[in-house]
């Protein structure tokens, strides 16, 4: 059985990441992609997606706590810091992200209500 990390946290090198960034920035401007984002915003996220979002939020909070200047650092430094955080606090991040996922699930209906209201006010 594949683990969550294998499915959602693929390791890519710098050139692949830059190539993805260029492709996504171009794609994000298209009208079809914008509609896809709007449609996705008014749907319930499945537990795997909530776990992914919770893990990202948890990682960000750990980075902000232990490395306040993370956003201004070079790419190689960021990679090294991410590895260090994962090595030191990996198990704690897993525990905290489970709690965050529960909170996100509880707040999901409220998020959807707000998204629907925004959609109605824009139209």
Considering the chains and any ligands shown, give keywords for the structure:
123 residues; mainly alpha; 2 domains; globular
Task: Describe the protein in words.
The chain has 2 domains: 9-41; 44-123, no CATH class. 80% of the residues lie in helices and 0% in strands. The protein has 5 helices and no strands. Helix 4 (47-66) packs across helix 5. The model has no long low-confidence stretch (mean pLDDT 90).
Low-confidence stretches: none
Summed over residues and divided by their number, the pLDDT gives a mean of 90
Taken together, the total number of domains comes to 2
**What is the 3D form?**
globular
Report the strand count.
Answer: 0
Structural class category: mainly alpha
Q: Can you summarize the main beta sheet?
A: none
β-strand amount: under 5%
SSE order in H/E notation?
Answer: HHHHH
What is the helical fraction, as a range of percent? over 70%
* Rg value: 17 Å
The DSSP helix count reads 5
Distance between the termini: 45 Å
Q: How would the blueprint of this fold be written?
A:
Layout: H1 4-8, H2 14-28, H3 31-41, H4 47-66, H5 75-122
Helix pairs in contact: 4-5
State the gist of this model.
It contains five helices and no strands.
């Amino acid at each position: 059985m594949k683990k969550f990390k294998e499915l959602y946290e693929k390791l890519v090198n710098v050139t692949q990441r830059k190539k993805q960034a260029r492709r996504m920035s171009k794609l994000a401007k298209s009208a079809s992609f914008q509609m896809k984002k709007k449609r996705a915003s008014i749907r319930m996220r499945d537990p795997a997606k909530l776990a992914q979002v919770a893990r990202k939020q948890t990682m960000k909070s750990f980075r902000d706590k232990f490395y306040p200047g993370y956003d201004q650092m070079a790419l190689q430094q960021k990679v090294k810091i991410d590895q260090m955080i994962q090595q030191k606090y990996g198990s704690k991040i897993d525990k905290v992200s489970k709690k965050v996922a529960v909170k996100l699930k509880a707040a999901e209906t409220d998020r959807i209500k707000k998204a629907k209201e925004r959609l109605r006010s824009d139209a």
